[in-house]
TrEMBL record, chain B:
<comment type="function">
    <text>General factor that plays a role in the activation of archaeal genes transcribed by RNA polymerase. Binds specifically to the TATA box promoter element which lies close to the position of transcription initiation.</text>
</comment>
<dbReference type="Pfam" id="PF00352">
    <property type="entry name" value="TBP"/>
</dbReference>
<keyword id="KW-0804">Transcription</keyword>
<dbReference type="InterPro" id="IPR033711">
    <property type="entry name" value="TBP_archaea"/>
</dbReference>
<keyword id="KW-0238">DNA-binding</keyword>
<comment type="similarity">
    <text>Belongs to the TBP family.</text>
</comment>
<keyword id="KW-0805">Transcription regulation</keyword>
<dbReference type="GO" id="GO:0003677">
    <property type="term" value="F:DNA binding"/>
</dbReference>
<keyword id="KW-0677">Repeat</keyword>
<dbReference type="GO" id="GO:0003700">
    <property type="term" value="F:DNA-binding transcription factor activity"/>
</dbReference>
<dbReference type="InterPro" id="IPR012295">
    <property type="entry name" value="TBP_dom_sf"/>
</dbReference>
<dbReference type="InterPro" id="IPR000814">
    <property type="entry name" value="TBP"/>
</dbReference>
<feature type="repeat" description="1">
    <location>
        <begin position="10"/>
        <end position="86"/>
    </location>
</feature>
<protein>
    <recommendedName>
        <fullName>TATA-box-binding protein</fullName>
    </recommendedName>
</protein>
<dbReference type="GO" id="GO:0006352">
    <property type="term" value="P:DNA-templated transcription initiation"/>
</dbReference>
DNA sequence: GCTTTAAAAAGTAAGCT
DNA sequence: AGCTTACTTTGTAAAGC
């Protein structure tokens, strides 16, 4: 009995240490990504839910913690792309994506796809463009999404192309390379999305 | 209007069978021309047929998996070739080994573009998986028939997980009627 | 869970000329 | 700027780690 009792404490302590580690990792990554405290709190809540629903077994704590942070950002409307969270995590993009999908399904998070517009404020401030460019980019996203161009496309690439197009239209040109860098997509992707969006706006 | 069912095309059939005889894969690999066998990497020996095109995975137990065929007839024809090749190596092969189709992959075309965002919400976020950042297709799991459909913005789709060709037809019918009910087609 | 095989869908990426 | 190759997703059996 004494042994069982010790084992329980050992297990409880181990579980407590694991939870503390996960939460500190969420904090570390959240700081590195520069997301507000509300996102860390949402991510922590999701992690505790995953824990109580026994979704961690068979998965790395770091992977689950990163996935919860990714989900938290999206739930708070200030998404970070998988590329971005992967940069501050110790696990790979593929594992994060797979773990995120598993947790979202099991916890019925019912996440809507990230809206490209949600990336515009951050990308634009990183590029130091005017409010005018920002508004124009949002206009381009709305119009081209309405015309059905968004289906299947990555939200970051779509946002990046709209910002690039808007910078040209507002005479505040940013190069494809500059936009590609802040959005973490290739110039080829920007070029492809940009062409379609310009056509959709009737600006070609 | 083209009935989406008429655009269905079987792209890949996976089936399993067995010759009812244990095999020494090392010697089979030596005698069978074009065989790929690397037990360190995978326990099965890979043998490819040319006509019809397919890849057979042959195991020590004598069990065989055939993939890549474009129809159930092709699966049988491919495996007949594999059986004959083994017989040429003086290996006993049962008369007519039972061949079980395990999975059929099909493609089809709904003929119109799809708004995947609207479909994700319409079909219910709890029933679908749509992560355009990770993959451009929307994943839709059906209960009846029990298959998985991947829907794309172009209106093209992939149906997998079925065990008979009719599964794909039933799936396409259900998908079309659900999208029509939601007013998300045309 | 992984390893291997096949095939489609469409988006993204990387390497080379 | 292309073109080619390759990776992402889905499902499935096989034997073994």
């Amino acid at each position: 009995r004494l042994r069982k009792w010790q084992e329980r404490i050992r297990t409880k302590d181990a579980g407590e240490r694991n939870l503390q580690f996960a939460l500190s990792e969420i904090d570390r990554m959240a700081s590195a990504l520069g997301v507000p405290r509300s996102v860390r709190e949402v991510a922590s809540v999701i992690y505790r839910q995953a824990l109580s629903n026994d979704l961690i077994r068979g998965r790395s704590i770091e992977g689950v913690a990163t996935s919860c942070l990714y989900a938290g950002c999206r739930q708070e409307g200030i998404p970070r792309s998988l590329e971005e969270v992967t940069e501050v995590s110790r696990v790979g993009k593929k594992e994060i994506g797979r773990t995120y999908r598993y947790i979202a399904k099991e916890l019925s998070l019912e996440m809507k796809p990230a809206d490209p517009k949600e990336y515009v404020p951050r990308f634009c401030s990183d590029l130091e463009v005017s409010e005018e460019v920002k508004m124009k980019a949002i206009e381009i996203i709305d119009e081209s999404a309405e015309q059905g161009l968004l289906s299947g496309k990555s939200p970051t690439g779509f946002a990046a192309a709209a910002i690039y197009a808007a910078s040209l239209l507002c005479n505040e040109k940013k190069t494809q390379r500059e936009v590609a860098e802040v959005a973490q997509v290739t110039e080829v992707t920007i070029r492809n999305r940009y062409q379609e969006q310009i056509e959709a706006m009737g600006l070609n | 209007m083209t009935d989406p069912k008429d655009t269905i095309n079987i792209e890949n059939v996976v089936a399993s069978t067995g010759i009812g005889q244990e095999l020494d894969l090392q010697s089979v690999a030596m005698d069978l021309e074009g065989a790929d066998y690397d037990p360190e990497q995978f326990p099965g020996l890979v043998y490819r047929t040319q006509n019809p095109k397919s890849a057979a995975l042959i195991f020590r137990s004598g069990k065989i998996v055939c993939t890549g065929a474009k129809s159930t007839d092709d699966v049988h024809e491919s495996l007949r070739i594999v059986f004959d090749k083994l017989r040429e190596l003086q290996i006993q092969v049962n008369e007519d080994p039972e061949i079980v189709v395990q999975n059929i992959v099909t493609s089809a075309d709904l003929g119109r573009n799809l708004n995947l965002n609207a479909i994700a919400i319409g079909l219910g976020l709890e029933n679908i998986e749509y992560e355009p950042e990770q993959f451009p297709g929307l994943v839709y799991r059906l209960d009846e028939p029990e298959v998985v459909a991947l829907l794309f913005g172009s209106g093209k789709l992939v149906i997998t997980g079925g065990k008979k060709p009719e599964d794909a037809e039933h799936a396409v019918d259900k998908i079309v009627s659900r999208l029509e009910d939601l007013g998300l087609l045309e």
